[in-house]
């Protein structure tokens, strides 16, 4: 058992670019793909994922410092620092109960697949930390391992169900069939975006506004192309950061590069995925009478969409302004501003790229993150200190745009650390409401597609 654990830990330490090809190869073999073809698919997907991460790294390394410079330039003084999802992930993986929680998440996924309660086969083991951190924080507050496990299992169930419900969006809008996104940092926005999108569609006048990037290209010509949008928005952010002209130009070109490169990396990713997807479809038709399995992947595969990046580039500076004005907020947006793309990706898919609604809904989502981050910062700071990660300087509090700042994670955390008789029903109502809205949205999309096909 120890040998197995050591091997697993070594592969996990190597990161997703090593773990993903191995898992995809194994899945290919299960679906009766020849070993050479399965390995080629796994390696191609790993290369595509590595390419996506390199471009996202380019985005973060350029956009992150610029966003942080904007914070400093506008003199926003808030006492809870956003230290970034990476620091929170380190807290998660340092917990003494992390091994138990990872096993519980994996077991939950398998049991739900067997019971046909989900179609998502989650191979994105690294992002298990989004589910685990909630259980860890519940355990830290209650000192109860069973409650910590229960919170993580509930997070897993919600994650897999939301993944199933949003898979049609991933296929229809992003053009990636047979894939779901069990990444809570992206999924959590659905809880807000789905009902808010429904509400905006009911408001006269507002429901007639439908401005998309392709419209910008139509009216702006050359300046409306994705690369030019990246150049212009990058330049604006550089100017707001009070960069010298050379750095403004550099940021603009780098954002233009991101707009062009990530779709190309995604196409490489799709090249590797298609043989596995086709084999899985054939296998399930033969063995499970047409049942469809979804391969659960990191939301990084969709954040390179030009609409997603454009939305994020607009939402980031507006989130900084909002942080200074939002009543009750004490979180200073900082390290996680560069990953706002993940928070708005499925928002963009729900609106089908309506930039007007994207910005409104994106700001509501980031506003909710700021407030939940403020509410849970004391617990998160104490937890980080308890595992030996003293990332809170001079006694200040920490937060991020991850962990229990995410709307779903916050609701589950509160459910298990408050009055269960009251909080659990509230949580169930929120999830049920989201399911109803998503079901109506899916039905409406199906009707539209049927008309188009005729």
From TrEMBL:
Chief localization: membrane
Gene Ontology terms: biological process: phosphoenolpyruvate-dependent sugar phosphotransferase system
Pfam families linked: EIIC-GAT
GO CC annotation: plasma membrane
Keywords linked to the UniProt accession: Cell membrane, Membrane, Phosphotransferase system, Sugar transport, Transmembrane, Transmembrane helix, Transport
Protein localization: Cell membrane
Domain PTS EIIC type-2: residue ranges: 8-440
Topological type in the membrane: Multi-pass membrane protein
Molecular-function annotations in GO: galactitol transmembrane transporter activity
Keyword set includes Cell membrane: yes
Entry annotated with the keyword Zinc: no
Transmembrane segments: 12-31, 43-63, 83-115, 136-160, 180-200, 220-241, 253-273, 293-326, 332-351, 363-385, 391-413, 420-438
UniProt protein name: PTS system galactitol-specific IIC component
């Amino acid at each position: 058992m120890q040998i197995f654990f050591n091997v697993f830990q070594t592969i996990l330490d190597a990161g997703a670019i090593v773990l993903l090809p191995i898992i995809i190869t194994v899945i290919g073999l299960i679906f009766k793909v020849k070993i050479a073809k399965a390995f080629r698919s796994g390696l191609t997907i790993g290369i595509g994922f590595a390419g996506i991460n390199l471009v996202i790294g380019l985005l973060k390394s350029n956009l992150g410092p610029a966003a942080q410079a904007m914070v400093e330039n506008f003199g926003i003084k808030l006492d809870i620092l956003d230290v970034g999802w990476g620091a929170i992930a380190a807290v998660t993986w340092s917990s003494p109960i992390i091994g138990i929680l990872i096993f519980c998440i994996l077991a939950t996924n398998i049991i739900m697949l067997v019971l046909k309660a989900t179609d998502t086969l989650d191979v994105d083991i690294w992002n298990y930390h989004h589910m685990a951190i909630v259980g860890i924080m519940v355990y830290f507050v209650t000192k109860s391992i069973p409650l910590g496990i229960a919170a993580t299992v509930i997070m897993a169930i919600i994650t897999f169900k939301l993944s199933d419900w949003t898979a049609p969006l991933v296929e229809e809008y992003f053009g990636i069939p047979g894939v779901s996104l069990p990444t809570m940092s992206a999924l959590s926005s659905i809880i807000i975006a789905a009902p808010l999108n429904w509400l905006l569609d009911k408001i006269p006048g507002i429901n007639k506004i439908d401005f998309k990037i392709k419209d910008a290209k139509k009216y702006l010509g050359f300046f409306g192309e994705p690369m030019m949008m990246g150049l212009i928005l990058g330049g604006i952010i550089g100017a707001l950061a009070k960069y010298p002209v050379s750095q403004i130009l550099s940021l603009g070109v780098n954002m233009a590069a991101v707009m062009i490169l990530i779709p190309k990396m995604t196409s490489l990713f799709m090249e590797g995925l298609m043989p596995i997807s086709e084999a899985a479809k054939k296998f399930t038709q033969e063995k499970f009478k047409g049942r469809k399995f979804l391969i659960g992947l990191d939301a990084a595969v969709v954040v390179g969409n030009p609409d997603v990046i454009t939305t994020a580039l607009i939402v980031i500076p507006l989130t900084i302004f909002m942080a200074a004005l939002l009543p009750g907020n004490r979180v200073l947006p900082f390290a996680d501003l560069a990953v706002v793309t993940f928070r708005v990706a499925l928002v963009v898919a729900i609106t089908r790229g309506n930039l007007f609604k994207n910005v409104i809904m994106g700001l509501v989502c980031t506003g909710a993150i700021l407030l939940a981050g403020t509410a849970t910062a004391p617990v998160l700071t104490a937890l980080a200190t308890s595992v030996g990660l003293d990332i809170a300087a001079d006694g200040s509090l920490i937060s991020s745009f991850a962990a229990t700042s995410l709307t779903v994670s916050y609701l589950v955390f509160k459910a298990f650390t408050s009055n269960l008789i009251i909080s659990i029903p509230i949580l169930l109502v929120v999830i049920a409401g989201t399911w109803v809205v998503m079901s109506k949205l899916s039905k409406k999309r199906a009707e539209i597609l049927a008309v188009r096909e005729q």
